[in-house]
Write a structure and sequence with these properties.
CATH topology: lipopolysaccharide transport protein A fold
Number of helices: 2
Strand content: over 45%
CATH superfamily: Lipopolysaccharide (LPS) transport protein A like domain
Order of helices and strands: HEEEEEEEEEEEH
CATH class: Mainly Beta
Shape: globular
Structural class: alpha+beta
Distance between the termini: 116 Å
Largest sheet: 9 strands, antiparallel
CATH architecture: Sandwich
Radius of gyration: 30 Å
Number of domains: 1
Number of strands: 11
Strand order of the largest sheet: 3-4-5-6-7-8-9-10-11
Length: about 200
């Protein structure tokens, strides 16, 4: 009886060993990918098919420069018409003259529409020092407006306006904050407003 149990145990051990060898052999054959298969994926993230450093995108109309976008890195992924951008610097022009700059940590640019979406410490600064700060922003190339649905801080000198949701021109001449609008007015602006009220 003891001998029979030992033989069965050995047979089971041989079977397990053979199965293990087959599994190891199958795993060793898998690294070679057949041609035409999907790009390699690492930790669930698809690798870019193209990567460029010091990338520049320029928009012009009738030969007149509208804006220039510079990025430290541009990543192009398969089956996507937009590209990912690492650190964005975007200068805006009107009639060829510079008027504002947008900077952010990250972004994407749609190479078909030239729409740009940025996020992470987004700041728009005009040539005369007005400044908009937020966490994300979309620039729509067709109408030339910037928009978001997040919290915004807009300051011009000592005046600060805050609120949620925004539509504006990149020169910040037109700016509409949609919800929860609050304003802090500096002493100089308040004095001017009081003086104007008295004159009226």
């Amino acid at each position: 009886m003891a001998t029979e149990l030992t033989r069965q145990g050995r047979s089971a051990g041989v079977v397990i060993m053979l199965v293990s060898i087959l599994l190891v052999a199958a795993c060793q054959e898998s690294p070679e990918q057949a041609e035409g298969t999907a790009p390699m994926v690492t930790d669930g993230a698809q690798l870019p098919e193209q990567k460029f450093y010091d990338y520049r995108l320029i928009e012009s109309q009738a030969g007149v420069r509208q804006w220039v976008l510079d990025s430290d890195e541009m990543l192009k992924y398969p089956d996507r018409r937009d590209v990912e951008l690492v650190r964005v610097h975007m200068d805006f022009f009107q009639d060829g003259a510079y008027y504002s700059t947008l900077v952010s940590d990250s972004g994407t640019a749609d190479l078909t529409t030239n729409d740009v979406f940025v996020w992470g410490h987004v700041v728009v600064t005009t040539h005369d020092g007005r400044r908009l700060r937020c966490s994300e922003l979309t620039y729509t190339n067709e109408d030339g407006l910037i928009r978001n649905e997040v919290y915004n801080v807009f300051d011009r000198g000592e005046d600060v306006i805050t609120g949620i949701g925004l539509e504006a021109t990149p020169d910040l001449d037109y700016i509409e904050i949609k919800q929860d609008v609050a304003a802090e007015v500096g002493d100089e602006t308040a004095s001017e407003a009081d003086a104007g009220g008295e004159n009226e």
